[in-house]
Design a protein that fits this description.
This protein is 38% helix and 13% strand. The chain contains 13 helices and 10 strands. The chain is globular.
Amino acid sequence: MSCRELFPRAVLGGYLDTAAEGLPAPGVSEAVAEYLGEKGKGTPGRLRHFAVETEARTLAATLLGAPVEDTVFLPTASDALNILAASLPWKPGDRVVTTDLEFPSNVLPWLALRERGVDVQVVASRDGALRLEDLIGAIDNRTRLVTVSQVSYKTGAWFPHTQSLGEAVHAVGGVLCVDATQALGRCRVPLAGVDFLMASTFKWLLGLHGAAVTYMSPLLREKFALAGVGWYSVEDAMGAVRTGAYELKPGAACLVAGMPNFAALYAMTASLKWLLSLDFDVEQKRADQLTRHLRAELAAMGLPLLTPAGDDLTSGIVSFEHPQGDRVMRALGEHGVVVWGGDGRVRASVHYYSDDADIRLLVDALRKVLGA
């Protein structure tokens, strides 16, 4: 049985919108049913909930290639970014370096710091991709944080230089943050040089809403002044209430203030087990070939591509400019093809359950839609 046949919606064909909403992995429905069964037991079901949380953290750490103590689940990628923004020791004149390829969640928390006198420098992309030299050129002795996406939600360009960028940031005492939401589960996500990383679970990780894999390096943990504290983030919450003193949990566990979204974590145990069971090299190579084929087809149609060429930049996303992207999206939907459209562009995304039939459906439908 092929991977595709395990996803009922994929079998129908034309689903090319994982960058917005991934299809649930095999076993996710059963895992959520297990959660409801344990929830139905009341308090005794919590024992299973906590065991699943531990298992989900272990699986996520395995996928990342990180120690489990440095890996947790937060409610959303936006929450992770806001916790980071609130927990660094900012002072007037400090600088944040971000880029014009970032999703709003990786821009707005930094813009909010302007009220505290923080300078926000936005590095412009070139031909849909980020250049390492441009990012390093924006770093100076005032730089406290540089934040980039491993894969741009907008152009689909994969950023191959996180280690070198991290070295440049660390040289001035700064922090490198990576948004891996459009990468983890589909592309390789190297941690060398990275201090803080997050990825939503409902896209390429094929899980549910309400969780985000989050990594914090031991180096960052040493300089991290956690802004928000809850009972789940300390070693002995009840004792702290009585004594007036508390000790944060070690590693990244201190980031989680309260009960996690257990339903989402049950789902993640299933999706991560499935993803980890795959031959990643084989699946990524096949999906990358499909992505490059899709880009070539759209280029042959003369569409103004946002996605740059180059094997080292390939991810699961291909997008092109269109002033009525939302209209194109709706029209393609009438032809049985699901993509994302809006913000002056149309975006298609290729995951492991995609195949040549999806590409043909999209190209044929685009000819009809754009020809009309």
